[in-house]
Design a protein that fits this description.
Shape: globular
Number of domains: 1
Strand content: 35-45%
Order of helices and strands: EHEEEHE
CATH architecture: Roll
CATH topology: SH3 type barrels
CATH class: Mainly Beta
Number of helices: 2
Radius of gyration: 11 Å
Distance between the termini: 12 Å
Helix content: 10-25%
Strand order of the largest sheet: 4-3-2-1-5
CATH superfamily: Ferrous iron transport protein A (FeoA)
Length: 75
């Protein structure tokens, strides 16, 4: 399952980040989106894009297309 399919309030564990643009993947990894990281979807914008998630104690906003590259497992 990918992060863009997780409902608000649900928690999940990052399994993998799909190969994408190298700079974007590097940025996600440096922000703590590493395999095994616990994340929680906090809220969605009124039109559903972007989404706010909590990872390693801070909030991060991602577009749905960006969230689609992150494989997760629901807890």
């Amino acid at each position: 399952m990918t992060l863009n399919n997780i409902a608000v309030g649900q928690s999940a564990t990052v399994v993998a980040i799909a190969p994408t643009e190298a700079g974007f993947r590097k940025k996600l990894l440096s922000l703590g989106m590493t395999p095994g990281a616990q994340i929680k979807v906090k809220r969605l914008a009124p039109l559903g894009d972007p989404m706010e998630i909590e990872v390693r104690g801070f909030s991060l906003s991602l577009r749905k297309a960006e969230a689609q590259t992150i494989q997760v497992e629901i807890k």
